[in-house]
Amino acid sequence: MTVIVGVRDIDRTWIASDERVSDDRNVNMTPFRMASPEKWVVRGKWVIALAGTCDSIHVAEQCPGLETAETIEDVRDLLRDAFLDLGELAKPDVQKEGIFKNFETSGLIASADGLWYADSSFDMEPLSLWSVGSGAYLALAVMRAWQKGYMDQGIDLEYALRIAVEITSELYDTCGGRVSVCYIDRTGLHKT
Question: Domains (ranges, CATH) in the chain?
């Protein structure tokens, strides 16, 4: 389970997440893919953060062509093709109208140009604020409170993201671990 929060802020896009990797049965499981603790991968000018199965982020790590993708439509098509290829290999698990039993996912895709929500339907919805994962709604509520001024206005966006993920992690035992925060702008990825 996971919590990932994304915010579009004028000339940069922020992503924050917890680092606990778990599923419904195993908290703190060690999947085969964890090259780094973040729940996102950087591919070219794109940050791809996926919740769902651990295998989903592995697909994004291995997906050919993402380094040179220019548009969100390019990213959508490349990810869709990668998941469809897996679906062909995974039959008979492929049953639910293109959503793969072992690769159900939702996520946030970020670039210097924007933030998009993506799910297994491969629709890409542009957003200014969103969250995915088991703790998504709580993290989203904390961030909306920050946006509306209900929190101390001296709190900057990075700190608000950390608070949102930390509070979510305290209340959901399947979320937790260190909080990772990054932003992407025209100069590239910056981990904070």
Answer: 3-191 (3.60.20.10)
Phi, psi of 4 (to 5 degrees): -130, 130
Taking CA atoms, 86 is separated from 51, 54, 68, 91, 109, in Å, by: 17, 14, 22, 9, 20
The span from the CA of 5 to the CA of 3, in Å, is: 7
Cα 12 to its chain centre, rounded Å, is 16
pLDDT in tens for each of the 192 residues of the chain? Answer: 678 999 999 899 999 988 766 544 444 444 434 445 678 889 999 999 888 665 677 778 888 999 999 999 999 999 888 877 765 544 444 444 444 444 567 889 999 999 999 877 777 889 999 998 888 888 999 898 888 877 666 778 899 999 999 888 888 776 777 888 999 999 999 998
- Tell me if residue 114 falls in helix, strand or coil: strand
